[in-house]
Amino acid sequence: MAVTINDVAKEAGVSITTVSRVINGNYPVKQETRQRVEEAIKKLNFQPNPIARSLVCRRTNSIGIVVPSITNMYFTEVVDGIEKYARNNSYDIFLNITNGDAKAEINAVNKFIERYVDGIIVVDPQTENMLSGFYDEIVNTVPVVFVNGYHQEIDLSFVISNEENGFKNALKHLNKTGHKNIIFVRGESSYSYDLKENIYRKFIKNIGSREYILTVNAGNSIEVVENTKKSIINISSEIKLGEDFTALIACNDLMATGALNACLELGIKVPDEFSIIGFDNIILSQMTTPKLSTVDQNMKKLGEKSAEMLFNYIESGYEADKVLINTKLILRESCRI
Amino acid sequence: MAVTINDVAKEAGVSITTVSRVINGNYPVKQETRQRVEEAIKKLNFQPNPIARSLVCRRTNSIGIVVPSITNMYFTEVVDGIEKYARNNSYDIFLNITNGDAKAEINAVNKFIERYVDGIIVVDPQTENMLSGFYDEIVNTVPVVFVNGYHQEIDLSFVISNEENGFKNALKHLNKTGHKNIIFVRGESSYSYDLKENIYRKFIKNIGSREYILTVNAGNSIEVVENTKKSIINISSEIKLGEDFTALIACNDLMATGALNACLELGIKVPDEFSIIGFDNIILSQMTTPKLSTVDQNMKKLGEKSAEMLFNYIESGYEADKVLINTKLILRESCRI
DNA sequence: TTGAAAGCGCTAACAA
DNA sequence: TTGTTAGCGCTTTCAA
Known about the structure:
The structure is a homodimer.
Chain A: H1 5-12, H2 16-24, H3 31-44, H4 50-57, E1 62-67, H5 73-88, E2 92-97, H6 102-114, E3 119-123, H7 127-131, H8 134-141, E4 144-147, E5 157-161, H9 163-176, E6 182-186, H10 191-206, E7 211-215, H11 223-235, E8 247-250, H12 253-266, E9 275-277, E10 294-296, H13 299-316, E11 322-325, E12 328-330
Parallel strand pairs in A: 1-2, 1-3, 3-4, 4-5, 5-11, 6-7, 6-8, 8-9
Antiparallel strand pairs in A: 10-12
Helix pairs in contact in A: 1-2, 1-3, 5-13, 9-10, 11-12
The first copy, chain A, binds a DNA duplex through residues 2, 4-6, 14-18, 20-21, 23-24, 26-30, 33, 48-58.
InterPro entries (chains A, B): HTH_LacI (IPR000843), LacI/GalR-like_sensor (IPR046335), Lambda_DNA-bd_dom_sf (IPR010982), Peripla_BP_I (IPR028082)
Organism (chains A, B): Caloramator proteoclasticus DSM 10124
Protein name (chains A, B): Transcriptional regulator, LacI family
């Protein structure tokens, strides 16, 4: 049996109220008494029971993280950022993986609320849950911060990476280094893919060159690497890579890696004959040969920032807010410099 | 304010005890009464407060996972396996990332115990904590299962992948497909590297060929890819890759990827001129060109199995046990078949 | 500056 | 089959 506040009170010859006071330091206690209590605490190696505390205070010193997947390096880094920040503030973390299922996301959030978590971070929330208004009442109960995902006209708190900006810069760089005809690779359905496609379209129109949009399956899972590779090899008979089109920009690094693999197989030299730029800057992008140029989303910072916001809400109350995190073009070896 | 058992009792016109009984179904309740209570529960949308429950039952329906890192794809898959299994059994998960720090590991475990978690899984525990006897008393308080890590003569519960077996098979395959002189790549210090080195040494002696052991820095982090690449390029002036040595076996897929990158840069054709086999079967191994042959550790299964064991302990009491998970040689494109 | 006592929401003896 | 009651370990009024 663990030692309780009662044991400490007896040992120190005071009431449990007094012990509680020295633990929390929220009421005056005579210096001498405090010392006696502190000694008793040390002697008995007393740790206040957080469960009992939570029951009365409605505070658990824990937060919940909801994330679509954890085998995806992208999310993993966000979680890592959150975890570090939370631990530094001595918060514990509940983790729930939804596999991108909207129902599972709702269940996760509800379970967290039941558990009295002090706050919730949802990474890449399902768009349908954003639109259904599910979260609108939730935030009256417990603060919630979202990391990326659909946020147009949604009056909730977000940390969002400035994808527009990064993507535009990548495109500009490609153009500046002599590329005119640029292939765009995207996955099937996602707010972020649409966003990038729009930018791509406008840009291509602007410089008066040819569009080529390649849509591949399974945008965010491992398979997308292989899928992209095959797609590119397929179209390589139709359009001349390195001549008709001399560059490619992808919606994420997995797709870019697939493109790189295709070039390797087709004997097209990157970056001499063909340039490739990815997006995200997951660690994979440093492991390829040549190393991928990409746009850094700074996932760790996304995580840290979301945690920081959440803790502010926990302390000072919730208020919808959107924070934009800058992205940065990282030039490595897969494109001209 | 959330609805409590009291509200339900009033609504149904019974005592809270009766409500508790129908919730838990552990004592007889008249059919008719039960129905009334159930209706009240539904009507008020009552959810029992798990905190109050935990306080009296000393059970939280949660487990703690301690893991060195989460940006490492290897651990990530183990955690994923645990999470799935736990969620299927409607357990929630606390996650703690130690960054391989022994003190942090101890803190994590202690915090979990304070929180009354029902069980703990420690992935790749720090050897010094295993040896110091820290866990010996812990397991009297709460069941703990370890995934891999140092386990010689340690009388605790482990799920261990059979690395010996898988590594030996890889070596045999290399030899069977005509390779005699095989390079061995390892990281600096780890039980698992030593184990593999011993097997390698014996094997090489047995077939009467030349040893070549390459030790690279930062065994388990991203940098090891680049470090390995550089090391291989370095030694390539000293020993002729593809002639003196025609194959390479690495302690993990990151190192193998580095080796692959080196070959790419040196213009050595894999697998035509040089064979490479990695270890672990992280998803990266499917993303390289050529795809890596490797030894599957089945991390997901390691995770699932450890969760399964833990739940058994939670139900039926703890008892030290070691479970071996088989590894499997996966032949892809980076070695002769 | 201190203590007694109520209560957080629930479970489980015990009694009826 | 049901209800009364005493906790679980803590915080926080209220009174002294």
